[in-house]
Give the backbone structure.
Amino acid sequence: MVTADFRTYMINIKKYAVGADIGGSHITCAVIDLRKKTILNETIASQPVDNKASAEGILNNWVLAIKRSLNDIDRNELMGIGFAMPGPFDYDTGIARFTHEVNKFERLNGVNVAQHLQTIFSLKTNNSVRFMNDATAFAVGEAWFGKAANVQRSISITLGTGFGSAFIDKGVPVVEREDVPGMGCVWHLPFNHGIADDYFSTRWFIRRYAEKSDKQLAGVKEIALRVPSDTLAKEVFAEFGTNLGSFLGSWLKKFKAEALIIGGNVSAAYPLFGKTFGMSLERQKVGTKIYISDLKEDAAIIGSARLFETNFWNEVKSLLPKM
């Protein structure tokens, strides 16, 4: 017979959570010590993933990476596994909703990922596999361990294949409030002749440089390498910074954000667009401090693991269906 004292003991020894960041071409995960608020560097594992593979193939690669992260810890000390997951996804139930329009992970559509992984890892308790939007997890990680740790209100954005964002107040995502947009993110908001995601992602750089130069380059890095000798490339980054400031300024003021954290692959090019971005914010009298993420991908890993910190989970679980 399992006694109440034994159950209390088992709860008290659990101090670890796995955080897993799901990208379009790979998974990266690590174990987080929730009590010490540290990432165990020796547990960091990454695994390539073909997002066009079968559901079994995708899940098997996720499992391979997570198993490597778990090799060096006592499983009895594991609280669970948290995922920083791109959408569309039912974050409260763990069911994937990827459709052909998303153009990745389509064969996972309708799969109960939580149930599958809970069985694979023999996790007995309910909610032992938890999920959060990947951009939100990044913002949570920055507010817990990173550049926004010492402020109350922050906005984090990720610039890459898509335009991720989240609003954080006292460490918790804000998804429904008068000072934030619907769903607590900005990618879907109108901007110029489309939506924000059309203008603040890799594909905008590729399209805009091609419009100006009649040259189709592979990505932002390739355009950035041309800046020293190519006026058109320089102009593209300047335009991007101006547009980003023009778009974000009103939300930074409305939310009274003390810090804006910029992550994602495009953040490496900040020296090329930071000046015009800053000038655009200055014109709007925005005083928010701007930081480039030091944690990078680790921020999403840390944020997803925080789903197993009891106080945070109690505050965030009701928000998951709204992300």
